[in-house]
Fold each of these.
Amino acid sequence: MENRRFNQRPRFAESGERERSNAKHGNDMIFGTHAVLETLRAGKEIERIFLQKDISGEGLLEIQRIATQREIPVQRVPIEKLHRITRKVHQGVICFVSPIQYAPLDNVVQAAFDAGRMPFLLILDRVTDVRNFGAITRSAECAGVDAIVIPQKGGAQINSDAMKTSAGALNFLPVCRERSLLKTVQYLQDSGIRVVGCTEKGTQALYEADFSNPVAIVMGSEEDGISDELIRVCDELVQIPMTGQISSLNVSVAAGIALFEAVRQRAK
């Protein structure tokens, strides 16, 4: 696919003290005020930053400022959490470098239209399980999805577990991290892309929906499904017909079913 270049990135160079991907969080981990500031200023793709609660300082304020400017998720946490991650001198700040380069959604959409293809996107609303995310990514790449769209906050962390479970798919499939999925849906609809939510609240069976045109499929968390605000703005709500005693599917399985129904229709 033409847009696969978005996920290509050089290996991260050594910068300050860090622990490799055998850390619990599975990303390249940077800690210490100076090392984190240098990483931010170098423009590296940051997954998220943990700042210690109830401390301040010029360096930490600068980290917060740059992170806010770059829309990097920042979480204030107790010192005990930082100590659980590393016992080294972290100076109240730890950041995790993403193993992928996030793609601009408008670039992905435009690349698909420019190539004469009908955009095919997958939106994941609050899917937090890393292994489910990796499995979904694997199915999406095999299905020819142009990109996966995730929220800036409240989604699975893309780490070594996600990379492994994706079987390498995350090296090829663009991932777009958006501040507001609601605004993202509105943007896609304005771009001529139909947004279909796959949910038990659906009013028709998955197989009755039309996926043959530009489409974005929305999948929600296993616990709560698609958020109410997204439910209200989807163009269509569909459900996967089930006849067994268990009323729900694992989200990665459900995503695979929905994606390949779209593949079947689009292959005609």
Amino acid sequence: MKNLQPHSVWAHFATLCAIPRSSLHEAALRDHLIAWAVNLGISTQVDAVGNLILRKPASSGCEAMPGVIMQGHLDMVCQANSGTQHDFEHDAIQTVVRDGWVIAENTTLGADNGIGVALALAALEEPGLIHPALEVLLTINEESGMDGARGLAPSTLQGKTLINLDTEEWGHFYLGCAGGVDVEVRHDCAQEGLPSGYALMRLEVSGLRGGHSGIDIHLGRGNAIKLLVEALHELAELFNLRLIGMQGGTARNAIPREAFAVFALPAADAAQLEAWAQQKLTPWRKHFAKVDAKVSLACEPCNTPQGSSILRADQNRLLDFLNTAANGVARTSDAFPGVTDTSCNLGVVALEQGVFRATFKVRSLHDARADTLADEVVTHAASSGMRAWKDGAYPGWTPNPASPLLDLCQQVYRQEFGQPANLQVIHAGLECGLLASSHPHLDMISFGPDIRGAHAPGESVEIESVGRCWQLLKAVLQRLANG
């Protein structure tokens, strides 16, 4: 990336790719940025929860102008293709430049939100840029809980306007986002030993594209957990199946790409499973031809030591619950055509040594609707005899079409690019809702470059759109400096 322009933005992004920054493991990157800022004479603050705030005084003559906050998050979603050896706590992200895009071929790239962070850092060191007082708020653990924004103390921020740099569609100003809440489900299953004459098998769903559980949920891509459960449900009707274990998904905010189960059935029936799997796969390939053409289903003997299966009653309980649990788009927006209003993603499931757990991510542009759908998932689990509860709720960001910052940004965008920007809300969780709760005076807007495949391996960011974001950010800051 060293030859890409704008050089300063890509240099910072290269640093973010080199320093591992999974959620809850941002300390090394934060320490590096503190040293970088101190070297430039930029003041630093780490708040009580671990957020990093960088401050630079206004340019000469602009001291009376209200301060501006640029905001992003330090962490990234960590996903890798099956068979890819990558330790996200120690290994650098490997990137390639191809056809105008920077890509991580076998892992997530971290352009969400590394490019936003890089843009803000580049603005702090840009020579000759005329600007008001600048603050850069870099939060921690956005991807797995929004803990940084949630823990930001009131009155921490001094600026009056905030530019969030965490959206992924160039040419759009975002002025609202979905809120969200997690649902956790647990159940302790009774176990029993396997009868003699049973064969151990492994059933795996793979080859799916996955994606962001908010902005990609409307695309109709396959959910590996849902497909695995559908297949297990059918197998349990055909054979005397004994479920032993199950695993699928790695993050509640990513559409699961892979899932597998280990089970036993009479050895005499095992020979039929390969043909059954191919027959089962045929309609899936037809159904997902346009969105997940590489979906795969494989069933083969398992060499792990024989363990205990869960009792038939618990097996039926789990499969029936997962087969009927909410997943996908629940409602589209009346106010914003083509935008998802409310959705649910079955993101993680595990059954290990009789202990079952599942995690759902519920989102909505209306907080009450997210709460209602989450309550429905909790009630459904309870009616199936399982424990369930809501956790990690965060508010949405209510649009303000009369925002002075939005008006100014529209003027600048038209001046720089000769056409108006589109206005949009996003079916994903930006930190703006939580920041508005702790700092209600802030006037906020969000924009960013074109990013594809966030939260999934193969994530990429368009080089040209990064340059345009940089052009826009500098022009907006200079306009704000001029009042």
Amino acid sequence: MDARFTAEQDEIRRTVREVLAGRCGPEDVRAAVRTDAGHDPALWATLAEQLGLPGLALPEVYGGAGCTTTELALAAEEIGRILAPSPLLSTAVLAAPLLLALGTDAQRNDLLPRIASGELTAALAVPGTDLATALDLVGGNRGDWAGGGRAGGIQARRADGAWRLYGEVGQVLGGHSAGLLVVAAHAGGFARSRTLLFLVREDGVRTRQTALDGTRPCARVQLRDVEAELLGEDGADVPGALASAGNRAAAVLACEAVGAADRALERTVEYVRQREQFGRAIGSFQAVKHRLADVYVRVQAARSAAYYAAWATVQGERAGGLALAQALEALRTAAAEGIQLHGGIGFTWEHEAHLYFKRAAGDELLFGPVHRLRAHAADTAGLFEQRDVAI
């Protein structure tokens, strides 16, 4: 493994940082969150049309840049530094890989070029609060998380040659404004139970929900006898495709969390250098130095794990879940220490420190918690399997 970034990768990081630096400060983030879309459409147009971020990891034949997960993860790291709300996660990280993996030629040719250009946004709708399970991050995703033929979840029925969906999804990232929903639904009842993915185009009742982390807008989606299009072919390995997409998403999310943790640490270091107590900057006290040194070590360790996970996806290895656990823990520590060392001002709504703390807590609720990410990674690797030992 060559740990050095290429000139192209460094240029992606630099360009994204420069664009965001002048257009997405803390007040801009708060203003974007309060809009109906939950993000700044003008900024999204810039990220999509000028930088090509939605199509960064899509093949060139579909209008993408033909890059890998690593390039997308580096862009996400810069976005995570300033917590810029955008449809990038829901569209390019969660939905697009499923369209690419399972879609028919007609579906790919129709949808992926529009996603790559930023014209179309998408969201993945998974029943209940099982997004992390469906993505095979905190538990096996071949169980009954999609409904299992019982009440709850999303049920799919075929009638008169068309698929109809029934049910409700409570937490859909970006679902209130997405032009396309990729819906996981249960089909076949008990006789031929299986999980399928369906495409729903701007149908259903969508209600934006109040979220702990406003930079991750979620929606409740109600599907009442809604016509849907099957993604790909019946019989496709949907759990396998979700697990593969989940591994890549975890690597991107880990880099995003590292970017947020790094920025939270930077802001705290800047503050303790300026804040004086007993006639000297509080950053000069040994206890403060030690606490920030511990945070720095956590952030750098998480960065190494996140970069490796992004690189490993190209090699077909699964390291995303473990890297995400490391990154979320680093972000939670950096945000908590930042609030404490900022003192009273860190607890106010006016200060940006609480935005990073909410991102840390919100991402653990959506994609964790950390201990389950680690436990599932250990189970997948067979770390604690009992083996017969010859005596």
Amino acid sequence: MANEIEATATLRDKGFAGPAALAIVTGTGLGALVQAVEERISLDYEQIPGFPAPGVSGHGGRLHRGMLSGRPVLVLEGRAHAYERGDPAAMRVPLATVAALGANRVLITNASGSLMPKAGPGSLVVLTDHINLSGFNPLIGEASDARFVPMTNAYAPRLRAALRAAAEMEGLILHEGVYAWFSGPSFETPAEVRMAGRLGADLVGMSTVPETILARFLGLEVAAVSAVTNFAAGISGGDPHHAETKAVAARAGADLARLAAAFAARLPES
């Protein structure tokens, strides 16, 4: 099976190598963030060994390298989800590859359902923590002791602070919250959402957590931002569906692009 060594070699030949201030993973409907990246070179996932072909509408399936606010970045436009093939480690090769290409931080974005009345559709929420309700872990089967990854500060406090400062600079409201990962692909029931809320969740979704675990395993610093596309089932009349997710995420994408650009400008050098 292809791995990050083959993928990295392919991408070096295509001009993707060199230090990167940040890698960005885009969620459903959030590919517009790519348009903010200047001097862009791009390659389809299907041309990169070991990269998955996203099987969900709203996920582009391309790797980009370019400049964002004068800083070199790598953008993974779209992801593979655990529910597509039952593989929670589907994004291991892409994340390992961007690390090998020179990134040491990753900004993960997603579309989510909100349990917070104050953070309705179109809101941006920086993740402070997560709850894994999926029954999956991408490190199951890993043989080394590196699998015992500390997760106390999975979402780096200094990167969260940089995101808050970036939002203030751009005049954007940035909420904070805990994200609960459900396996999907069916949306959560109202009872499941009530359970998640009682456990401390502010958002629900079907991604991000496996990438966060993998990124921490690989030694990457992680920040994550949700674009709220709907109220979760049973919250303020929420009855989510995928068309709504894509449509609202696309509208929130402009704010997310502004936030990401301001965040890239404020990143520490190391």
